[in-house]
Amino acid sequence: MMGTIRRVTRNVKRWRDAGMALRWVAVGMIEANKGFRRLKAHKQLAILRAALQAHHDRMTIKPVAHITRVA
């Protein structure tokens, strides 16, 4: 994908502003999208996402609630 974006944007001689850069990158992404293959197991993506979220939740350190000291 990055190679396609580079190929699409390489002929731009003068970058005027951030909006112009975003437009050209969007065109490159649309062009790259044409070369993507369809995912065969697309129906299982929701299950994968849930498993990845559960794994992330287990691995993330939870913030400790505010503890007040008793004198």
Characterise this structure.
The protein has 71 residues and is mainly α. The chain has helices at residues 2-9, 18-33, 45-59. Helix 1 crosses helix 2. The longest helix is centred in the middle third of the chain and has 16 residues, at 18-33. The protein is flat, with a radius of gyration of 22 Å. The termini are far apart.
Strand-helix topology:
Elements: H1 2-9, H2 18-33, H3 45-59
Helix pairs in contact: 1-2
Index terms:
71 residues; mainly alpha
Residue windows where pLDDT falls under 50 for at least 5 positions: none
* Order of SSEs: HHH
The main β sheet shows up as: none
The level of helicity is: 40-55%
Total number of β-strand segments? 0
Broad structural category: mainly alpha
Principal-axis shape? flat
Helix count equals 3
Proportion of beta-strand residues: under 5%
Mean pLDDT, as a whole number?
86
Radius of gyration, taken over Cα atoms and rounded to an integer in Å: 22 Å
Distance between the first and last residues' Cα: 61 Å
What's this entry about, in short?
The protein is 55% helix and 0% strand. It has three helices and no strands.
